[in-house]
Write a sequence for this structure.
């Protein structure tokens, strides 16, 4: 556990030292603030429901940028081989890097919590819906990060890692478009795989075992696959 924490701290520190991550943080928070002001000003209601939709859409674009170099850059520079020769298991490496990336994402999410006291001051927001909405966004961000780490473990190129992440995330996010042309079990399966069918429940204050299982299972699966790929590469 100490090794995982050490790797997570190192990864988190690397994010705060990275100009790219700093730019992403500043630009993202600035964009969120603008949309928060525009949406709340237009709708005149103490709710973050529409703001959550904007944040979710933004995460599709920014998370691959944050995760594309987590493994690919280490492979390109040769430090991945050094890391794997240390008395640290591949599982600890992957989980540590995942937690470090998730820590940076959590900081980004935490900054937006300032929206709550603002809404509380001007109105009477639904606290349960707001809390569950944040939980849903955080879980979805964690899933996106796990997908990004998996993509980064597949290649030495950050660009290719980002492209693979975008392909997967866009498929998960926009797959609801294709449900209109399907029916029966095919439609149900596609609806179950898309992120929209799960995030919308959190946004309205509904947390179900199915939605929790969707995110947690996806995270575990991506971490497991990343670990397997790294180990297979080491054996080559």
């Amino acid at each position: 556990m100490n090794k995982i924490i050490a790797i997570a701290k190192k990864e988190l520190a690397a994010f705060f030292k990275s100009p790219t991550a700093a730019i992403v943080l500043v630009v993202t928070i600035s964009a969120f603030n603008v949309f928060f002001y525009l949406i709340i000003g237009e709708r005149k209601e103490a709710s973050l429901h529409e703001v959550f939709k904007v944040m979710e859409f933004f995460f599709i674009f920014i998370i691959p940028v944050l995760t594309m170099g987590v493994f690919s850059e280490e492979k390109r520079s040769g430090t991945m081989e050094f890391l794997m020769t240390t008395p640290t298991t591949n599982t600890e490496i992957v989980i540590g890097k995942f937690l470090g990336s998730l820590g940076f994402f959590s900081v980004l999410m935490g900054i937006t919590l300032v929206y709550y006291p603002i809404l509380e001051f001007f109105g009477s927001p639904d606290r349960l819906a707001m809390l569950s909405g944040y939980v849903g966004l955080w879980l979805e961000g964690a899933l996106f990060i796990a997908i990004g780490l998996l993509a980064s473990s597949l290649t030495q190129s950050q660009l290719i890692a980002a492209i693979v992440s975008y392909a997967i995330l866009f498929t998960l996010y926009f797959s609801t478009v294709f449900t209109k042309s399907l029916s029966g079990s095919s439609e149900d399966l596609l609806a179950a795989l898309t992120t929209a069918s799960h995030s919308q429940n959190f946004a309205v204050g509904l947390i179900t075992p199915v939605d929790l299982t969707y995110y947690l299972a996806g995270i575990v699966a991506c971490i497991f696959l990343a670990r397997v790929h790294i180990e297979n590469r080491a054996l080559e």
Q: What stands out?
A: The first helix runs from residue 2 to 17. Residues 116 and 130 are 8 Å apart (CA to CA). The chain has a mean pLDDT of 84.
